[in-house]
Every structure is written in structure tokens, then in C-alpha cells.
Amino acid sequence: MAGNSRKQKKKNKRLRKDRLLLLLVPVLLVGGLIWFGVNKLNPLHLKSTHYIAEYKSEFKPLDNLKSLFMDSTEKVSVEGKVDTETVGDYDMNYVYDGKKYPFVVSVRDTAAPEIKVKDYTTDTTETIKAENFIDSITDASTYSIKMDNREDTKEAGTFKITISATDQYGNESEKSARLIRKEDKQAPSLEGFEKQISLMQGQEYTSDSYKAVDNLDSSPTSYCDTSHLDVTVPGTYNVDFTVRDRSDNQATYTQTVTVVEDPDYGKSTCYLTFDDGPSQNTLKILDILDQYEVKATFFVIGTHPEEYDIMKEIVDHGHTIALHTFSHDYASLYSSEEAYFDDLEKIAKVVKDQTGIEPDCIRFPGGSSNTISAEYSPGLMNKLTKAVQERGYQYFDWNGDSTDASGNNVPVEQLIANATSGIGTEKINILFHDTDAKNTTVEALPSIIQAYKDAGYIFKGVSKDGFAPHHAVNN
């Protein structure tokens, strides 16, 4: 009997479950039909009727679309346009199956500035600024910076500094850094200082290459006393440098300057310089220079290998051979600093192979004042004028011009007049060109040389430590 009772209970339980399932099926079916009907009638769902887009961040047209019932979002079109570069409210519509779903996109700046800070070490004297601790700040809008340095006592120690940035929409962030103050007892040093140097008589003395540096003061002062130096009189002189930091630590460096006698000092000097050779006219020019017993300089290029052997003739006649680049092609050699030096090194190799000489004097095509280089690499000449000297070269522009570059067969009388207009200038570097087409330059040369001789000039080739006219750099 007990066994039958248990079986009956199980049977009754199954019956109850079956009845419940029979009741749930219609309910679920009706619920599903209702859900399907609602979504069929209103298939597109928005994330929000008032969507917030971040200022100056990308907003994609479908960013506010939450879902689309049983269809592709490619069938949804968008009415309206959002400009995330401008804060404001923009009315938008999604259009699907002929129905519009309106919403508003509000472009707002809700992001606080992102601050990266750094610790700062200084002495006990400096008045600190917020900028000392800021590595970077980024934000979509303008911002202001504040610094909380209330803990700073200007004594040796470590102090907490708080930097805060608030943008124009009131979003604020802050970061903390350490201010490390140390008692400074170390005097600055003089970077690049040379205890002894030599100058040719009359050569300008410059201290620009020496820089005061300090362990804690980023801008120590340097004073150079040249009151006892006279570069016009041969002899030995002392030049004193005094360097000082803001903590009043100071040191003195004494440099011995030897002024070497120049037998030509005080005499007017003419530097005849010829660009773009060697050419078929070079030997004619050398004959004229020999005839008048004067020296000149040839800034050579490498585009005429059939004339390379003349480079040796230039040197054998006692003239200065210098570099003017291999190609003289502005677009190529002025495309970058690397391209310029590749070209320069190429002509340097040719000259060394032909003459055994490694020139240290150069002339930029177009001169250091050229502007054409800006078409290929803005700011390049500012870099090159420094870089060539750092590599051991001296560059030469000119302060006299024959104007033979203005065309071929410029009238002889015009060349003479232009080239001799510099008479009266103590040191004159005259620009000529040595190419196959410059026949009138050759014809004018004797009269030009004679005019300068009659005016008492001596003639020299350029040298790295000699007179080097430099133009104002325009790129």
C-alpha cells in the first residue's frame, strides 16, 4: 500500500507540472507576439533622446543608435550634422522605413585636462613657477594653471607641490610633484673653455663658443673681460671670464691669447673667387693670375669629369682650391641636411683624389643668404651654416660681385665697373664664375686686377682662419 501511495503522488506532481506548462505556453506565446508587434511597429531604438558628444572628439552618425529590430543599420539614414569643434546643441533624425526618430546631440567639454608632472630640483634661492613641474598638459579647450606651494619654505628639503589645471568649461584636475631644494655651494663652470688660443693680427676675438653651465642654476651669468686684449698688436694677453650663479657662487677662468704678427696686416686685401669650375676657361684664368702674380680661390664642382685634371693645375699654381658641392643642384642638395653633406663629401673626395688636398673652405650654392633652399627644406640654411663649422669647415659668401652670374657674355666694361666698385673696402671678396660660357669674365679680369693693384691691394686665397664674409641667413 505504501508503494502505491508514493507512485500516485509522483503521478499527481507530473500532472501539476504539465498543467502549468500548458498554462505558460499561451502566456509566453502571447507575450512574444506582443514583443514582436511592438518592435515591428517601433523597430529603431535610441540610446538617448539627448546624446552627449565630447568636444573635439569624433562623433559617428550612428553613435546614438542602440538597436534596429531584424534589419541592417545600413538602411538607416541620418538627417542633420554635428560639429564637435563647436560646443552647442544639434537637432538630428534617424530615418528608417519612412519614419523619423528625432534626438538632440549636445557637444560638451566634460573631460578635465590631462596633466603629467615631474619633480623639480633647485637651490634655495630660485622662485619656482608652475611650469617647472609640468611635463605636459593636454585639453580640448583653453585652460589656466595654478600652483599650490604653501609647503615651500625656500630651505633645503623636499616639499609637496600641487599643480591644478582648469579648462574654460570648469573641468579641473590636479597632480602633485616634489620640489627638492638643495643648498648650492658649487660655482658654475665654463663649457668649451680653452686655456690658450692664437689669433692672427687683426683677427676678431669672440667668446661666443664658451657657455656658463651650473648644477642647479639653468641660466648662470658669464662676463668676459677683454680690456687688456689688443688684437692689432702682436703679443700675449690675458682674457678673464667670470661665471656666477644665483646663489652667488662664482669662478674665474683666465685665457692666454697670443696675437701672431701678420705681415700683411693693415694692407687692403682682394680675394678673387671663382665658382662652378673647372672649365675650359680655367687655364686661361690661371695664365692671367700668373701674369699678374696674384693668388685666387676656386670653389669647384664635380659635374665635368673631363676637366678634373685641372684641379691639380690650380693647386700647382699656388691657388686655393675649395668646395662648392658636387652637383650644384638646388633641389637635390638643399632637400635636407643629410643630402647637402652627402653632396659636399662627394666633391671633397674628387678634390682629394685629384690633388691630395682635403679643403676646409666651402661656398654654398646661391650663398648662405639664398632663399631657394626654403622651397625644399624650410630653415635649412640656419642649420647648415652652423653644421658646416661644427664639422671643421668655414663658409665664404662675398662682399663684392662682378655680376657675371646675371647672364653669359655680360659686357666687359660692365664687369669691370661692378668688380672694381669695392675699391676702398679694406677686405673685398669678389664673386666670379668659371664656366665655359664666361668668356667676358676672362677678358675683364686683367683690368680688374690692375685696378686693385693700382689702389694698393694685395691678393690672397681664402683660408679657414682668414677673412670670411657672411651674409644674413634668410632660411
From TrEMBL:
InterPro entries: Cry22Aa_Ig-like (IPR032179), Glyco_hydro/deAcase_b/a-brl (IPR011330), Ig-like_fold (IPR013783), NODB_dom (IPR002509), Polysacc_deacetylase_ArnD (IPR050248). One of its GO terms (molecular function) is hydrolase activity, acting on carbon-nitrogen (but not peptide) bonds. The chain crosses the membrane at residues 20-38. It comes from the Bacteria. CDD domains: CE4_SmPgdA_like (cd10944). It holds the Pfam family Polysacc_deac_1. The keyword Cell inner membrane does not apply. Keywords: Membrane, Transmembrane, Transmembrane helix. Residues 268-460 form the NodB homology domain. Gene3D superfamilies: Glycoside hydrolase/deacetylase, Immunoglobulins. GO terms for biological process: carbohydrate metabolic process. This is NodB homology domain-containing protein. It comes from Ileibacterium valens.
